[in-house]
Protein 1
Amino acid sequence: MTGTAIEKTDAVIVGCGVAGGLLAGRLAKDGYRVVVLEKRPEIGVPVRCGEAAGSREEISPFIPVDDRWVVAQINAARMYAPDETFVEKRFPGVGLMIKRDRFDQALAKQASEWGAEIRTHHEVVAVARENGRICGVAVINHNDNTRYMIEAKVTVGADGVEGCVGRLSGLTRHLKLKEIHAGLEYLLEGDGFPTDTIEIYVGRSVAPGGYVWVFPKGHRLANVGVGVLPTMAKTDTAKTYLDRFVDKHFPNAKRKALIAGGVSGTKPLKTMVDDGVLLVGEAARHNNPFSGGGIMNALEGAEEAHRVMVEALKENDLSRRSLQRYDKAWHKRNGRLIHKFALLRELFFKLEDDDMNKVISVLGKIAAAQSGKITDYTELFGAAFKTTPGVLWKARKMLW
Ligand SMILES: Cc1cc2nc3c(=O)[nH]c(=O)nc-3n(C[C@H](O)[C@H](O)[C@H](O)COP(=O)(O)OP(=O)(O)OC[C@H]3O[C@@H](n4cnc5c(N)ncnc54)[C@H](O)[C@@H]3O)c2cc1C
């Protein structure tokens, strides 16, 4: 970059979504100089999310739960088979429906109150290297169309699914079509929506390689969306599937808004760090590859990143070797489960509709026999696979 001013900081965080907002706050609270660069003019806007998050207990260690961004409590989940029979499990308080824009803004406010500097409409366009290590970023300030550079002891890619830090630093590559779900969602207004239950509809005929979600938003509102795998949805688009679903189930609802976004569905990265750089949240593929959910994963990833970054900054050692403690900690906390969900995704969403009907019917029986909260969905699905005649054999063929 030429003709650019250079400033220095301890950490530069690219992206002020869930992961970036939390991590920035935690580092700033510990006394480090943190600059957050967010390319959007307004944090969290437009919302690109189904807005189903964890429970009050799960969220509150990260940010005090605030009724300004909570719209409903989730007390049950229903999964509909292609033949529209369903399995339902009630577990009161299992999650919250949130206003995602306000949630991201609350995390950013917390970060700035703790001392982080947040710059909106500032887009990172390149990473800078010195002797092979990442030493900062090049930025365009879209507010006045100027360019500048920030030199940082550590650069964080918290820039989500479309992020550039991972690619520019060589940690990630563009996602292949089979690794990304095309997500599309209406905010619907009308009657007949669930109020405290999240509903999932599966089947190739409904959403090839993914599912349709109906999530309550209170006040006669619901987020109704679809995620499809483009490689499986050969002829129709995500919009065709979504419109078909809405026409059938909520023909009188008003379509108030339409949002689109990609959701990664890959295994987690083996390494999320290199000399002077670290990835977190969806940029590091922290999402649950089965559900696509990533809000809680981004918070947890940021928590692990914070812990290791503080140690590394204290030691003044931001080398790959030093930051690898984050790889290790994250994989220990979440890696095994995410791998299991990735496997489940490979199996479940590729089933033919008839087989899916059978699996969900067995799932219903297993769930009914269980009492209390389900703690491991992969075990539950695994049991359903094993006990559904013929399906395990087909599943083996899908994998090997
Ligand atoms: C349609 C859809 C529905 C979803 N529904 C749910 C759900 O119901 N529940 C759930 O848990 N998860 C859901 N997800 C996934 C969830 O939204 C993500 O996992 C989560 O947002 C990841 O958080 P993050 O902080 O890693 O990234 P993000 O929240 O995506 O934040 C990344 C930020 O980086 C910014 N950025 C990107 N590039 C640059 C750049 N070059 N310079 C500066 N800034 C940059 C972006 O503008 C963005 O603000 C959904 C996703 C989609 C697309």
Protein 2
Amino acid sequence: MKQVVLKNYMETLLLEKLDEVIDKLDCCKCEKCRMDILSYALNRLPPKYVATYEGQVYSKLDTLSLQYETDLMCALYQAAEVVREHPHHDLTSEEPK
Ligand SMILES: [Zn+2]
């Protein structure tokens, strides 16, 4: 039997736009910074949960309005700027204590 999982569609959308924004703002592309940008933006956007079968590729939601897209890009740019100014990746090769 297939598992039904909840997925935050907002996360999928942000992931699609993430690299574009990182390129434009010339941000660090390491995994930590990417995920920092993603979480920062996700925390500032309303979640958009959809129920889907596990592993199922679902098509884009048509209900997503233009306003959503604007808010999304706005949050993503803001997030990228914050992370660029205050990166949380390891700046030294020292072992964390
Ligand atoms: Zn980084």
Protein 3
Amino acid sequence: MSNNSSQLSRHSARNFSDKSVDLEQLKEIISEAQHAPSWENAQPWKVYLAVGETAKQIRKANADAVDQQKKSWAEVTPPQEWAAKPQKNIDDWLKRMATYMGDDVQLFGEAGKNLYNAPAIAYITIPKDSTQFSAYDTGAFGYGILLAAEERGISSLPAYSFVRFPEIVRQYFNISEDEVILMGIGLGYPTDAKINKMETVREPLDAALQIRD
Ligand SMILES: Cc1cc2nc3c(=O)[nH]c(=O)nc-3n(C[C@H](O)[C@H](O)[C@H](O)COP(=O)(O)O)c2cc1C
């Protein structure tokens, strides 16, 4: 892989500056991501993009909901238990994050509460009762957004935190009852905050790859 690969330079940002992202660039990013492959070109995803005043109001509503300890569920719920391999990697990541953040570890939760101050949030939906193949297709589409943004010097964060209160998101968009909100992606320009500089590692190749020749 070449050293200037956007796959290697991309990493999650969790504190965005107030600088807005040019709307034309955001449209280009999403348009490029639409070239993701999908089952018989099914393209199951839809995108709802919050920018400007709408993103600001959603961030505020989210912070209020967290402060009020509102009970809510994402429309696609995480599992109660993960399989052993992902669980081990999650544990490693949590440890790494706690060590890196040290006394500032509570900033992680606060960042989520404020939706990372993201000036643009792309909400991705799929049809209700989608098959796992639609989730596969939409993951490729979501990653396409991250890479197309990275290539333009725009940072990103895919996060469950964005979709914890789907009723807030639905207030701002016309999202059909036949769709579920799967994921939210924050886009913008990172500040110099320490939280933006956390490095993650990947398991060794042979933990994920088996080859027979
Ligand atoms: C489906 C999904 C949900 C995520 N949810 C969160 C989240 O709620 N909060 C957060 O800080 N990061 C979240 N992340 C970001 C991951 O923690 C991050 O991608 C991972 O640790 C690898 O780090 P990197 O993106 O910097 O390479 C999420 C990522 C994905 C793909």
Protein 4
Amino acid sequence: MRYDAVVIGGGPSGSAVATALARQGRAVAIVERSEFPRSKVCGEFISAVNLALLDRLGVGDSIRALAGPEIRRVALFAGGTGIEAKMPRAPTNAFGRALGRDVLDTLLLEAAAEAGATVLQPWQAVDAVPDGDDMAVHVECKDEQRTLVAPIVVAAHGSWEPGGLPSQMKKRHQPSDFLGFKAHFRDSSLPPDLMPLLAFPGGYGGMVWSDQGRMSISCCIRRDRLAQVRAEHSGMAAGEAVFRHILAACPGVAEALRHARLDGSWLAAGPIRPGLRAAYADDIFRVGNIAGESHPIIAEGISMALQSGWLLAGELARVPDWNRAGRRQAGLRYAAAWRRQFAVRILTASALAGLASRPLTAGAMHQFVRAFPASLFLGAQLSGKISVVPGLG
Ligand SMILES: Cc1cc2nc3c(=O)[nH]c(=O)nc-3n(C[C@H](O)[C@H](O)[C@H](O)COP(=O)(O)OP(=O)(O)OC[C@H]3O[C@@H](n4cnc5c(N)ncnc54)[C@H](O)[C@@H]3O)c2cc1C
């Protein structure tokens, strides 16, 4: 089967690029291996600067109708009492809101289909190899196999799992790895407009009201600290043990969840792979987490996924011929645009994650933020919360 572009992965990055390319009149196939709706380890916060882009993708109204409350304040919950500051306002005066990934990802993938993309789901891409001047992507579903041929292949499969694609990362296992956890709670007393950052020994996290009366709590913890925590809570599932660890370190979390109840179960993922990577390599374009990933302490991964998909579609539209030379030209431009838009927030997030997860520096960070609560506001600004998407300002 022949297409203009094959997109591997139907998360926010894959759906964004597939929708944008389909709207340009291109024949696009998007391959997603999971059935939707599916849950995801994610805090679910979406910065307000994405609303214009979500409108262009055709889902802005649905997201406004379904998402949780506007988040107007940030806070630091570490030892002792919480410290609060204002959330920076987007140039449109809107504030960010959270929406469950079961809902968001389904809406975005449906929008890609409505724009004309062919959705192969649940199909898994297992290989991508050169095929003359094109690429051939081998996909599988149960016992069935197909080959999709296209000049453009976009890797949008995320970064947390290894696999046989040239764009997938090698498996790794180091004590300093961060593993992700997430759960929904109901009946929390967290103020609806507040998003606290949680700092605890070996990790960091966040809480925010999402949709349908659900509050999400998500976190990352170092692998070596997780092993200690699990030994201290032997017999307990990993997510529950991490939750106990957070409750012990952050009184603000215990207070907000005093009368709350778990909705579903704890999910785990990872290790996460923060860092800057090649946005175009092996003749494969990369969007979302696989192009580069920030520590989720800044809750900007969905923004980067959506925005990188949009940036790539824009650069591809500027190239008249999608032959090898055209692809290389688009790849160089896209990589430069990607770095301009995201490099600072990735570095900011790494610095913050290092500070928050080490007990010594977390204590200093807490004292500093207590003396200068406005630093929370500045940190949110640096993390890209109000960085307008080029072409959509
Ligand atoms: C603890 C935690 C909290 C977070 N909180 C937030 C937050 O509050 N706000 C925020 O903006 N970001 C947050 N993030 C980050 C955010 O979840 C990610 O950055 C975002 O999901 C990346 O989107 P993506 O499209 O690149 O990849 P993904 O969302 O991972 O989507 C990839 C898709 O590809 C599919 N796939 C994978 N391999 C294949 C294959 N071989 N063939 C076909 N399909 C395939 C997968 O099934 C998946 O649906 C958080 C992350 C963590 C770990």
